Amino acid sequence: MIDGPYFVLTVLGVLGTGLVAGVFYAFSSFVMKGLAALPPAQGVSAMQAINVAAETAAFMAVFTGSAVLCAVIAVVTFVLWPDGGTVELLIGSALYLFGSFGVTIAANVPRNDALAKLEPGTREAASFWPGYVREWTAWNHVRTVASAGAALSYLLALT
């Protein structure tokens, strides 16, 4: 059984990855649908504002802090190789680091950067918007499942 400081790290891993999964789930289940239902100029403008607002210390601490924590858990797991939960800890770390954090960097952020360069009321923004919503949301589904899977995997490591 996992105990001591390693237990605390794993519990924090469950909480961090679970919180991020919840944020991503909200976007996948209703936020992006609501934005897509708006006229393109309003949807683009709203998403641009959301992307700026997302870069707050509170969200970034949980999102980036969870990535750091997952990396620490993976390294500690390789070093200590505990009797129980090793596979679950490594799977949880990989899911978050690659499926959530990695996908964000490789897929969602570049789309956000492209959207940020557009003027909301333009023809270019209107034609870009439907593809952005479709692709961004598809990648967000991946992030949601990966983050939730990481939280579940860490939770299973504790049992």
From TrEMBL:
Taxon lineage: Bacteria, Bacillati, Actinomycetota, Actinomycetes, Kitasatosporales
Full protein name: DUF1772 domain-containing protein
Membrane is among the record's keywords: yes
Organism: Streptomyces thermospinosisporus
Keyword Membrane belongs to the record: yes
Pfam families from the UniProt entry: Anthrone_oxy
Residues annotated as transmembrane: 6-27, 57-81, 87-109
InterPro entries (UniProt xref): Anthrone_oxy
Record keywords, A-Z: Membrane, Transmembrane, Transmembrane helix
Organism domain of life: Bacteria
